[in-house]
Amino acid sequence: MIDYIRSVATLFMQPIRLARTYPLDALRADLFAGITVGLVLLPQGLAFAILAGLPPIVGLYSAMTATIVGALWGSSSHLNSGPSTTGAILTLSVLLPIAPIGSEAFVLAASMIAVMAGVIRLLMGIARLGMLVTFISDAVAVGFTAGSGLLIFFNQIGPIVRISISPGAGIPTILAETFTQLAAIHWPSLAIGATTIALIYLIPRITRKLPAALLSMAIVTIITALFGAEQYGIRLMGDIPPGFPPLANLPIFDLNLIGQLANGALALAIIGLVEAIAIGRAIAGYTGQRIDSNQEFVGQGLANIVSGIFSGMPCSGSFNRSALAYQAGGKTALTAIISGVTVLLGTAILSDVLEMIPRPAIAGTLMVASLGMVDRQGMVRIWRGSRGEAVIMVVTLALTLTLPLQFAILIGVLMSLGYYLLRTATPRVEAVVPDPDFRHWESAHGRPTCPQLLVVDLQGDLYFGAVNHVEEHLVRLLDHHPSVRFMLLRMHSVNQCDVSGIRALDTIRRILRVRGGDLYFVRVRASVMYRMQISGFYEQLGPERFLDEDKAIEFLFHRVLDPAVCIYECDRRVFRECQELPKQTLPGHLAIPLLDGKSPAQIAPRPLWEALHSPQPPLVIDVREPREFQRGHIPGARNIPLSRLIHERDAVPAGPVVLVCRSGRRSMRAAALLAGRTPPPQVLEGGMLAWAAANLLEAVEQF
Question: How far apart are CA 615 and CA 530, in angstroms?
Fold first, then answer.
């Protein structure tokens, strides 16, 4: 508990760490970069406030406060917090049903929802929930951002041509109302907006060192001032009071309003965090900086709380301002702090100039910015990639255009989480075989598999949500391969296994044991092995069931699998070890019977040697193939391969018989053929391998 309290306390000590570690040689670069970003933040603050249906000064209040606080308590050196397009249009969507646009209640609700969203973000950071943003796929962010961009674009049609559009209208309604008011289009306003758009696209072709949006608005403002914009009916920004942001009279005890804002605040908190973390990580990809999600949650939370307290609006990170901070040479978070101070000073000094900015110019700027929100390359990449993510992207985009934004983003997030759970709950369970060069494992895909051994890849965790899927697929594989008695599970992709997973593995083992086989494992991770050990499953299996991957097939082939099946009943050569195995497939439907549960008597090599030198030695029948027999056999042994023994078993002389093969496994099958003899046949324990290990004499025949 003490460690957790200390870790939480460190989240609020970020300004002290920034001050202690600040490199003085970065001051000049941060100063110029901060002023550059601040000059862009000035018109953006105005524009985003208008986009949210708020007085322009509200955007500047947020730009002054949230930008500075977000930089002090955030973790990114370049993330610029403050008013953003997504936050503005989401704020408008949430507040439209609650209060009339422009009213005092509307403005207070905007500040209140900023505080609520900030508290949610702050609590998430304190609770160390930064990892939750990883569960929200790019498909949701791309679809929502594209939909928001289209909404912003069409919502600027009214301001740019000076016609009345119903507040909060959807795209079809906007187009319909625009079509019915074509005769009322104000052409001077349209000319101002179109000129602004043209300049924004033209200036970067001349120079990329100057901020195109700021310079375009400055040029258009100067032109309209020279020619007298008001006499042509062009609407200007209007009164902008200078000074420090005032404290808002927040309705913190209005539980009815808080209840109405709750869903919207949650949506603002989530999408704002996703946006901020995504921007911070995108810039960090160029700088190599490590982004702390929990610290960024705290920074974004405090930024929104302070913005709401000082009469501002909900805020988040801005990609274009953050990218500009990096491109302008900013080194540390001081860049964002200076940009906020620049807005504060600019409002105090340039308030008369800001009042002269034409509103169609701001609408044109927002139109260009909104089109930049449609990530066409990202949409194509998602469309060509995962089918599930493509569906999530399209549905999120459609919902953004048709539903209130808070519901669109929440549904998109739920779809993303559902898709994640679906993928983790349905891991791939795939039978694999060696490739033609016996170097790698690849999917069987209808290729022949071993009739005795099934090798299976588990590609996902064995937790309670996935065990039914895994168990069903393993049982289905066994049903499709009724002769399989042994299974080798490759566990390299299984990072976690709970009690339910252990139960599923035990079920599969019981099925194999009923068939007379068993379950084996390779590449079991330490976390899974620990779970097997504390549950008793490891002890139940025994260490011999956990094999080295490089030697697993060799061990199973020579020590576990029935060679009689390999030689007489299987015409496949699946593993490397099969390649030089003599194949004497039995004709027709002949089969060598299995023992009916009774193991034959066994005799060790030394007692057999002594019995062979007794007055009445037993008959030794070597059931291997002739080529194996000739390489070395017990002196005096008679070679009758299993394939012949089926037909010649009645010709075997009466008396004691000892059956011999390489390791004793084929001898067991031969004993089943000779069942019912008196005395019953014996089997050389360990076969010729044990005979050689005992240093007993072998006879070798000339080839």
Answer: 58
Is pLDDT at 194 greater than 90 in this prediction? Answer: yes
CB contact at 8 A, 269 and 124: yes
**Euclidean distance between CA atoms 699 and 639, whole angstroms:** 12
Distance CA 653, CA 648 (A): 10
Model confidence pLDDT, tens digit, residues 634-692: 999 999 988 888 888 888 888 899 999 988 888 888 888 888 888 889 999 989 989 99
- The pTM of this model reads 0.66
Strand 657-660 and strand 682-684: the pairing is parallel
At position 92, the amino acid (one-letter code) is L
Question: Does residue 79 contact residue 296 with C-beta atoms inside 8 Å?
Answer: yes
Residue 674: closest CA among 621, 632, 633, 612 = 621
Q: Strands 441-443, 453-459: parallel, antiparallel or unpaired by DSSP?
A: unpaired
Outline where DSSP puts E strands in 610-695.
Answer: 619-622, 638-639, 657-660, 682-684
Residue 490 contacts by C-beta under 8 Å, 6 or more apart in sequence? Answer: 432, 441, 455, 456, 457, 458, 522, 523, 549
Residues 332/22, Cβ–Cβ less than 8 Å: yes
Backbone angles phi, psi at 441, to 5 degrees: -100, 140
Helices marked H in 436-536: 467-480, 499-514, 526-534
Contact 669, 562 (CB under 8 A): yes
Q: What is the largest CA-CA distance in the chain?
A: 133
Query: pLDDT at position 553, please?
Result: 92
SS3 103: coil
Which burial class, exposed, middle or buried, applies to 177 when counting CB atoms under 10 A from its CB (0-12, 13-18, 19+)? middle
Strand partners, 316: 82
pLDDT digits (tens, 9 = 90+) for 405-423: 667 777 887 888 888 888 8
Cα distance between residue 546 and residue 653, in whole Å: 44
φ/ψ of 191, rounded to 5, equals: -65, -40
Is pLDDT above 60 for 232? yes
581-599 mean pLDDT: 65
Q: Is the pLDDT of residue 279 over 60?
A: yes
Q: Say if CB 482 and CB 514 are below 8 A apart.
A: no
Condensed to tens digits (0 to 9), the pLDDT of residues 32-86 reads 888 878 877 887 888 889 888 899 899 999 999 999 999 999 999 989 999 987 7
Kindly tell me the sign of the dihedral angle through the C-alpha atoms of 12, 15, 19, 22.
positive
List the structure tokens of 132.
């939750």
Residue 338's nearest CA partner among 64, 575, 130, 610 is 64
Torsion of CA 653, 655, 659, 660, to 10 degrees: -90
Report phi then psi at 147, rounded to 5. Answer: -65, -40
pLDDT above 90 coverage of the chain, percent:
37
- Specify whether the CB–CB gap between 339 and 67 falls below 8 A: yes
CB 84 within 8 A of CB 318: yes
The confidence score (pLDDT) of residue 604 equals 94
Phi first, then psi, for residue 109 (nearest 5°) are -65, -35
CB-based contact 200:213 (threshold 8 Å): yes
As a whole number of Å, the end-to-end CA separation of the chain is 79
DSSP state of 683: E
Q: d(Cα 504, Cα 510) in Å, to the nearest integer?
A: 10
Amino acid 591: pLDDT: 63
Q: Is the dihedral of CA 668, 674, 680, 683 positive or negative?
A: negative
Nearest to 666 by CA among 684, 691, 692: 684
- pLDDT tens for 315-326 read 998 877 887 788
